[in-house]
Design goal:
The protein is an all-beta fold. Helices cover 0% and strands 45% of the residues. The strands form 6 sheets. A 5-stranded antiparallel beta sheet has the order 1-24-23-22-21, with no helix packed on it. The chain has a 4-stranded antiparallel beta sheet with strand order 4-3-2-25, with no helix packed on it. The protein starts with 7 loop residues before the first strand and ends with a strand. The relative contact order is 0.16.
Length: 288
């Protein structure tokens, strides 16, 4: 479907053969791009676009689910045909919709008086619903991307509180860390630590057991780019961090939309400017 017009920069990038699924707030599209060539291999125009901060492919790459704030939708990846839509009630917002390892779908809904975490099947049947109090009075300021961890609990970065909580199956808060920063995304690393990325150009790694901040990447120590609002981030197999750099709150549109950061905080790969990709707030590694 054409080639990216952006500049793609490489420096010792051993894993550039990956495919990246990208989406974003104020993007209005979901794309699959080739990391090494920049080719746009698949483009989906989001109908009745609202705000897309999470998109996920099934293991067999036949289905794609995404959160569009006002709804969650499942589509056939090949044909782009919509299979179902889950509308979100007025005053609530859906910002997480991703496949779990067992094939079910995790949905995070910001709401009052309590936020909701759903696990649904591929037919949109609700299998589990957890309600919990975020302590944040504005649903839009509650959270964006949440995860289910290896223990079967849910890890939620609470943007409006600058805290990260682990929520149990009954909605109880089992653990809380307070890095005092509005984080957008969380990932659980192999050792159980939390990889967090958020506003103000921040990527943290925190030990949830000790609350110790193990690593900080910010504009004081990064080499090769300026960090804006760091949205989804994840650890690559080579130990580098792939992160999206959302520019929606910044007048600076010159910074890379995606970046790969090595263990020395050097940017070793960038996805820079493209007129068809205004910004990115969600990125998933799909593989070859």
């Amino acid at each position: 479907m054409g080639v990216l017009l952006c500049a793609i920069v490489f420096a010792n990038c051993a894993q550039c053969a990956e495919k990246l699924l990208i989406a974003g707030c104020n993007f209005k599209k979901i794309m699959l791009i080739d990391k090494s060539t920049g080719a746009k291999e698949w483009i989906y125009e989001i109908p009745q676009y609202s705000e897309c901060n999470c998109a996920s492919l099934s293991k067999d790459k036949k289905l794609l689910v995404y959160a569009n704030k006002r709804n969650v939708r499942l589509i056939n990846f090949k044909t782009q045909e919509q299979i179902w839509e889950m509308p979100i009630p007025q005053g609530q917002e859906a910002h997480t919709a991703r496949f779990l390892p067992n094939g079910n779908i995790l949905v995070g809904i910001c709401a009052l008086p309590q936020a909701r975490i759903l696990e649904i099947d591929k037919n949109a049947k609700i299998l589990k619903e957890i309600n919990f109090d975020t302590g944040i009075s504005n649903p839009h300021g509650q959270f964006r991307q949440i995860i289910k961890n290896k223990k079967g609990n849910y890890v939620v970065p609470l943007m409006g509180k600058g805290a990260v909580v682990e929520v149990g199956s009954k909605g109880e808060i089992l653990n809380e860390a307070q890095p005092r920063a509005p984080f957008f995304s969380v990932k659980e690393l192999k050792n159980g630590n939390w990889l967090l990325s958020g506003e103000g150009g921040r990527i943290y790694i925190i030990n949830p057991a000790t609350k110790e901040t193990v690593r900080i990447i910010d504009n004081k120590n990064i080499d090769g780019a300026k960090m804006l609002f760091m949205t989804e981030a994840q650890m690559l197999k080579n130990g580098n961090i792939l992160a999206s750099n959302w520019n929606g709150h910044s007048p600076d549109k010159s910074q890379p939309k995606l970046m790969e950061i090595d263990k020395n905080n050097r940017v070793v790969w960038k996805l820079e400017n493209d007129e068809d990709i205004p910004n990115i707030s969600a990125v998933t590694i799909v593989g070859k």
